[in-house]
# Entry
Amino acid sequence: MTKPHAELPPLDPEMFDPVCPSPLAPFRVGDKWAAMILRCLQDGPRRFSELKGPLRGVTAKSLSQSLRRLERDGFVARKAYEGTKPRVEYSLTSLGRGLLGPLDAACAWTREHWDELIDAHEAHLPQVG
# Structure
């Protein structure tokens, strides 16, 4: 069961490596930001502004598009709250939560093969000279 938003600690703005998302990672869920958005939501619902913190380099437009795609694909739920301070929160659906295990496995594999991935990538870069 997820905690209500008010009880969640803030997201760590340093939770992702500055080179993330790396083009070297061979696995991708959705678009460039989707897997990291899922990670940000793993402990409970978050507001749009909270998601931007750890997702260095994401524009508001890209984050909105990623969240819409994740919602369309059934991984994320969007809930709007009315009142004096209207707000929107995003949370994982059971389908989205089911992706966390495979993401853990993909991340472990990528860490294990990082040097090989770098070597393969560098072998196909244009030669300058």
